[in-house]
Structures are given as structure tokens and as C-alpha cells.
Amino acid sequence: MAELGKELLLEMYYDMVLIRRFEERSKELFHQKKIGGVYLHLYNGQEATGVGALRALRPQDHVITSYRDHGLAIARGVEPRRIMAEMYGKKTGVSGGKGGSMHIADITHNFWGGYAIVGGQIPLAAGIALKAKYNNEDEVVICFMGDGATNNGYFHESVNMSAVWDLPVIWLIENNLYGMGTSVEDSSGQVELVKRAIAYGIKEGPRFDGQNVIETYNVMKEAVEYARTKGPVMMEALTFRYEGHGMSDKMFSTRTEELEFWRKKDPIHILRDHLTEKYKNIAGELEKLDKKVEEVVEDAVKFADESPIPTYEDLINHVYVEGQ
Amino acid sequence: MADKNTSMREALRAALHEEMVRDDRVFVMGEEVGRWDGTHKVTRGFFQEFGERRVRDTPISEMAIAGVAVGAAMAGLRPVAEIMTINFAFLAFDALINMAAKVHYMFDGQFKCPMVMRVASGWGVQATATHSHTPEPIFAHFPGMYVAVPSTAYDAKGMLKAAIRDDNPVLFSESIALYPKPGVVPDDPDFVLPIGKSDYKRRGKDVTLVAYARGVDWALEAADTLAKDGVEAEVVDLRWLRPLDLDLVFESFKKTNRCVVVEESLPFFSVGSEIAAQIQENMFEYMDAPVKRVSAMDVPLPFAKEIELMALPDAQKVVAAVKEVL
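YS: structure for the whole thing
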């Protein structure tokens, strides 16, 4: 496995801590009703998968995911301010306050959004990959999906089409062991989800430790290379979310033993241990980054708090593309 | 540029061909569109001419045909996807309604979805309950997507070209029964009709017949019959269910004060229902009679021809409805 440079490791550390803090803060803000609505799907626990995978991409590559999207948006470099503002339903949000937490997109970062229909992002990923192939452009698409999404029709139809058309796409299954409250064992005949690749005749990538950002980065680098030169590849990250499916998931907190087990494999701790082992006297640098995270998150909250709400004009705007 | 005698099928084919020649971003995808020349032969010869990059046979995967088209459109291509018949479009409903019709709005204008979903529609050929739908009004229910329902070769050509050039998603319904219908269309490759404009297909003063797609032919046939009795019907072809243009409907109704809506679709929550509501809301002072609706019967379609035809609207039923409002 390739050694990663200190600078990259620290960047990934920063991103992971930023996601962790952003999500924890979002949970508080949801309970304070600052973040409105009924949906909020947190990414804490899964940070290494998202950060490792997205760091392996090039700027011209494309990212698309499900409704569990704010962590990935941060990992892709979308401004935390504008993500938080979107979650508040403010005009300054990435989607103008019209998409909410499940629809964070920022085309300037080739971040094509979260999609709230389970599996809905999967055919879109194939379509974006088709554009790259059609125009003979050196771009790949990474499509994140949970384990639950692998059981609906979008998955089957789109993965098969990606195989038939040799599309430059990475199907990354984030197996966090539960689709809402139902376990993988209770919902999939083949619990090693990545093995489904065999049935479609596409590359079966590794089933890897999604808690380890270095491993994730390395396997994803290979996946990007495979997708851009050969075609579709499926990957499976083993990971765990520290929160329920969404804010309404009351059952999750009863899974204390499981949570305890995964807390011991905390992705940030793993990276921190690696860094302190490898570099003496790095504690100060990490502390500085932790502090910066606090500032960035609080700045995002302040920005969202102070931003204007959308207007009637926004309600009726962009239903159609006008003035062509 | 000359006008050309042709059929609606060939007019559609010419429209698609011209747009593919004009713009490399335009491509065709769907079941049997390529090597098989298209189930309805609208893409006949395309595979040989344009090749597999631009004429893409797909697996039998309606969810992905629609969803992949949405992704490709968002990314900058201009897919003309085909779902073999509108009956199978129910399988693609989520991708059309939750993706195609929503992405522009939901992400505050960051994405556009310039795709056309062509669907063949209609019944009356003993195709039975699952293969005999005309659910265009359902698709028109949702903001964010246009719905085209042409009735002539001329309109079909100009409307399909407009749909392909437009930056919004369009469900383009082609009535199977109308594919062989003869018509005259302009050869001009820049002949394009405006989106969301209805059209008078016959002028009259005694009653307004509002129709679309196959309903227009029943309305026109009924108008000929009525003319023999001295009743001059005016026929307004909606052409688009979204955007729904009511200008000609209202203009005509102010003159005739009577209206019958003719459609192949089912009566419940139908275009007829919408037109009737719009007229009573906006034209109440001009109303001399209730708005009548002629549509399919409110039953699933059976196999046996004799009883299937009982459920189909026709010119006689339109004439009978007109006589009730005169």
C-alpha cells in the first residue's frame, strides 16, 4: 500500500474532523429547530470513506450521492457556509434553500448532488458517465450509495447498462450495515454486496475497510484508474454511521454493543494514531487544525443564522428554464 | 424549401434526423431504436447512418432509460430517449417526475434537463388492459416537465424539433394510430413550432370542440357530420398539455358559449376535467350550457374487440355530446 505524504494526510485529517464537527453541530441545530424539516441524515462515523474516496479523484471527475450528502459535499470542497445555509433553508444555500439537507449540490465542484429517492442517483451517475464517454473526455464518475440502495431497480438497471456501455463509473457501496433499520443480512441474499459485480460482468473491486482513510484512498486511486481506462468497477466500503438512519430513527440508540464495537474503529482515531506514530511532535499541528474546524463550523452557523430567507420570487423561479 | 406530402411517422423521423444532423449533442436511446430500426420505425436507418455512439440500443430497463437520459441531459447532452409505449413509462415514472421534472428547481437552477422522452400511446387494437393506456394527463399534472400531444404530421415535426431544442424536459406522446396519417410538412430544417401554443383545426361559431392527439380527428369528423345539420363546430387542438394554452379555448368559447372536450384518455381527473374547471372559473358569464366531456369509458380495456370498441370515444359520441349542449 502506497505511503501518503504528510500534507495529504493532514488535509484528510482536517476534512474528517470538519465533517465530524459539522454533523454533530447539525444534530444540535436540528433539535434546536434551527435546521427545519423532518429529515437530516448524518455522515459521522463514515468520514474516512468519503474523504479517502474523494481525495482520490481529480478535479474533472464527478461525484453524486444519496441524501446522506453533507459530509461528502464538505469532502469535495463545497463551502461549509453554503451547505449549512441550505440546511437552514436560506437563500444563500447551495440550492437557494429549495433543496434542503438531502439536495446539496454544487456544480462548480462537480458535486452533482444528493438525491432523496433511494437509488435515484444511480442512473444519473451512468448518464453523467455517458456524457464523458460520448465526448471522449477523460473524466470518471463516482456514485456513492448505501447498502440499502443496492436492492432497488435503479441499481440493477443502471449497473447493467454501465456494463453494456463500458461507462467510466465507480459504483461505491457504502455498506454501513443498515438500510434504515433493516440489516444487510435481512435484506440481501448475497451479503458481500460487491460480489454483485460478477453478475453484471463488471470489475469486482475490493471490499475494503472504510474506516481507514489511507486504505480507502489507495483502493480508490486504483479504481479511478480502472474506470478511466477500462470501464465500470464496483467497490464496497465497510463502515458504520454513529447516528440513526435519520433524526426520526429511535431504534438505533438501542444498538449499544454494535456502536461500542465501531467506536473502537473510529476513522479519526485511526488516522490520528497513524499520524502521531509516524510524525513526532505532530500533536500541535493537529490541535491547530481542530481549532480551525471549530472556527469554520461556527462561521458556517453564523452565516446561516444571518442569511436571508428565500422570497416568493424564489418559490416560483426555476420551475422551468426560461428565456432561452 | 418545399412542402412535402408525408405521414406523421415520416414527419417525426425527419424532425429527429434534422436535429441529429444539426447538433452532435442530440442522440437517441431506447429499446430497439437502433439495430431493429425502432419498434415504430421512427428511427429507421438511423443506426446505419449515425452509428452506435448516437443511436443507442438499451436493455429492457425503463427506469434506467429515463434516469440515464436525465443524467446525460444534466451533463450537457440532449438525449431523445424512447420508451417503446407509454404503458411502460409507468416504470420510469420516478425518473421522469422526481428527477427530470425536479432537478432544475430543486438545485436552484444549477442544472438543466434538456431531454425528450418519446412515448408511443393509444389503444383500440386489442392490446388489453396493460397495453392500452393514454395517461398523458397524469404526466401533465406535475410542474417541471412539458407534455406534447400532436395530432398532425405538420405539428409533430415542428413540435418535436421544438422539444429537442428546448432546455426543459419534454414527454412527447405519439399516438400509434396516427403514425400512418398523411400530412404536408415543410422541408425547411429550421421549421419549428412554438412550445405551448394551441391551434384552430377548424373554424366555426356554434360550439367549441377542444381536443388533442387522436381526439382531434374525432372532433373534426364530428364537425363534418354536424355541418350537414347546419351546426358549425370550431375545433381547438391543444397540441401541448403543458404548457396548457387556453387562449384559443377562451377566445372560441366567448363566441360559441358551448364546449365539448374530446380525448382518448380516461375521464377521471382528465384534461376534460381541467378544461371544464378553467371555463367555469374564467368564462362563467359566457356559459350557456355545461361543459361536456367525451373520453374513454372508466373501465380497464378488455381483449374482445366488440366490447373494447364500446369503451372507445368516436365521432358519433362527440356528435351526441354536442347535441346535448346546443
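YS: worth flagging: Strands of chain A lie at 62-66, 111-115, 141-146, 169-175, 178-179, 182-183, 203-209, 233-238.
IM: good catch. Also The first strand of chain A starts at residue 62 and ends at 66.
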